[in-house]
Amino acid sequence: MAADSAGGSPAARRDRAVRAAVEQGLVGSGDGAEPLVCLLDTDGIRASAAALRAAFAGALPSDTPVLHAFAVKAAPLVPVLRLLADAGIGCEVASPGELALARAAGVPPARIVLDSPAKTPEELGEALALGVAVNADNRQELERLDGLVAAGPTASPLGVRVNPQLGAGTIEATSTATATSKFGVALRDPGAREWLVRAYLERPWLTRLHTHSGSQGVPLPLIAEGVRVLYELAEEINAAAGRRQVDTLDIGGGLPVNFASDAESPTYAEYAAALREAAPGLFSGRYGLVTEFGRSLLAKHGLVLARVEYTKTSGGRPIALTHAGVHLLTRTVYAPASWPLRVLAYDAKGAPKTGAAVPQDIAGPACFSGDLVAADRALPELAPGDLIAVPDTGAYFFTAHYGYNSLPRPAVYGFTAAPGGGRVRFALARAAQTRADLLRESGAPQRDALL
Ligand SMILES: Cc1ncc(COP(=O)(O)O)c(C=O)c1O
Description:
This protein is α/β, with parallel strands linked by helices and 451 residues long. The chain has 2 domains: 10-42 and 299-441, Beta Barrel (Lyase, Ornithine Decarboxylase, Chain A, domain 1), CATH 2.40.37.10; 43-297, Alanine racemase (TIM Barrel), CATH 3.20.20.10. The protein has helices spanning 10-23, 42-57, 78-86, 96-104, 121-130, 139-151, 192-202, 220-241, 268-278, 295-298, 330-334, 435-441, and strands at residues 36-41, 66-71, 90-93, 112-115, 133-136, 158-163, 185-186, 206-210, 248-250, 288-291, 302-314, 317-322, 344-346, 357-363, 372-380, 387-391, 412-417, 424-430. Strands 1, 11, 12, 13, 14, 15, 16, 17 and 18 form a 9-stranded mixed beta sheet that branches. The chain has an 8-stranded parallel beta barrel with strand order 2-3-4-5-6-8-9-10, surrounded by 6 helices. Strand 17 and strand 18 form a beta hairpin. Helix 2 (42-57) packs parallel to helix 9, helix 5 crosses helix 6 and helix 7 (192-202) packs across helix 8. The protein is globular. It binds pyridoxal-5'-phosphate. Pyridoxal-5'-phosphate binds at residues 71, 74, 92, 115, 212, 215, 252-255, 292-296.
């Protein structure tokens, strides 16, 4: 179901935002106008956060502790984390930088979870000093935690990440539950399960279990099966301990997103229903729950808006040379079959472009021939000065900039569309990288260092 608000459906809000972005000078073709801007629909983000909370609140006894922690890697922008915190969502972080962003957004340590496969002793020490929850990835990390826990008390809830080894989805690179995945304790490896149960019994402070078995391309039943495995392991540990040692299950994120249309599918309610079917005990209220969704909270609310600089034909194929390319849409450019994106055509005034659809390539600005956002895509024929919009790019795209060709990070604005066709308001969420920033980050202050 699309996240309608008083400002209209997501598609209507998008059209209004595109026109307003041109009218308010955020992007366009006039003298000095920016060729590229990224937009985030803040009402859409709030609607997704509310849908997530409602899906689990509706399925759990009311006093069940639940923390929905946004996977910061999906959109590492402090104002986004702040907006989500205001909507009742914490943070899952996977690096010291992400932890710093969550803290800068004012997210309290008790609402932050640290997962990552290569945490340093310093990172672990910082997390435990703050009281941030930590999921250990492997045996050696658990041994490091032994030392830290022995050194003094911590408020951090501690757990271990497991890999249920259920197999890949359609995208190998983002599948985490494969037989040889680098993440977590591989539960089906010989002796691993027995070792893990013993490890819990020897460490009464291990109170959580974690898995993240979903991702784009993984079907819901397979994700739910991973959570069922986690639940059964918790039951086994608690039975062996003779008490409720594991009190919280962190079920990760990984809900896939529909990149083919504006429909939000699958929904959080469908996900909760699939979990309920696979692991009804999860909803008994006997376990607290942590979730770590990233893509499904942000993807549909992001838009890249770029000017068409030139058009040409090559081998008879029309090509639009635009400012949206590999620096923002990296996954799509390098792996187009796995990450296809829609492209929408607007005229220079920001109105949806009409006219007969013509197959054309939508190329980016980078100096390598593979920099194509879409190949042979049927769209009204683009002309210089038109705009293309690439929707569904709010997670892992423009928020994960790739610095090829020294193409700068563009500005990101959040927008809200007032009801009844009123004004669209933009708020700067991240300034564009300036020429001075680019020079500084590219070693200009160290100019003579290698002489
Ligand atoms: C441990 C963990 N949690 C959560 C996420 C977020 O996944 P998604 O954005 O697919 O919801 C990831 C993604 O890599 C992850 O590794």
